[in-house]
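TL;DR need structure tokens for one chain.
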Amino acid sequence: MVVLHIAYLNNNACSGVCVVVPQHVIKQTKYATIGFINIAANNRIDGINHQFEFIKEFPLSSLPNPFDKPNLVVFHEVYRPEFIKFAKVLLKAHIPYIIVPHGSLTCNAQKKKRLKKKVANIMFFNSFIRHAKAIQCLSQREADDTKFGSHKFIETNGIQLPQIKKELFTNSGLRFLYIGRLDIFHKGLDLLLNAVKLIKEQLRNSQSKLVLYGLDEAGYFKQLQKFIKENELSDLVYLNHEVIGINKEIEILKADCFIQTSRFEGMPMGILEALSYGLPCLVTSGTTLDKLIVDYNAGWACDTSVESIAETILQAINEKLLLNQKSHNARLLVEDRFEWDNIAKKTIEQYKLLIS
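>> reply
TL;DR here they are.
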């Protein structure tokens, strides 16, 4: 089987798409002939053997055999104007394609920049989505909340278990950690900070704190900074710019609990990464991972609301003696459900079913 992946990948290490798409491409190579086009021009991705230059006109004849006649093309994300032209070429050549929206077609995601997306959908993207062979969702909840597309299937992202893992937890208050984009609405950072505000005295009494790392988006860093200062949370909440590489690993291993309070997600890689190190996670239902984390006893789950988040933070503090067991279960969850080789194999099997 010949599969061609197309995506926009820059050097943003905080972007889940930029992290997982290369892994999908690399791991699937074991089970099929895989090619890749990055529409972020001249940005080659290490580890991918068959990657081709982005050409605006996208003539299939510009690609070497067998990628000039792939069995399937996979578009990652939706709102890339370049995809529209690519899709028209594929339809004319009777080559099927699928779309992996990475959460961008859920009802909650559509509320963000709602008017702009509504116009763009009507003018361009509804046709692009409608002609796709299928929509690949990354979780059941994403599939349930995605109202686009006539056919959907579920295959998730994966993660590699690191050699090093969380060994020691605090004897005093908990160190809660968030690493991800500083997108206030999407990631529910307003919910999280309001929850901290609600229980700030209990957090002080328990000597607990919240550490945030993230890539600034649309001036959100200053907005968060202002909220922290105005609500006198500076001794509880430590806001930082993005952290990557070995420094990111150090922060994960220093923490006692990873926390993510998203309103919506496809499959959040920050949580999977934390779990892979054996770091228990506190998550909202919007992350799509709440049920698995509860089923494996790998952390805590709550509703996507200020009150529920606050209550669950206090529960985690009161149950800190359970951290070692939850840490063990976190690694087991990743090993059972998100190991990359199994994900790649199952995904290729789904692709074959689609075109058979």
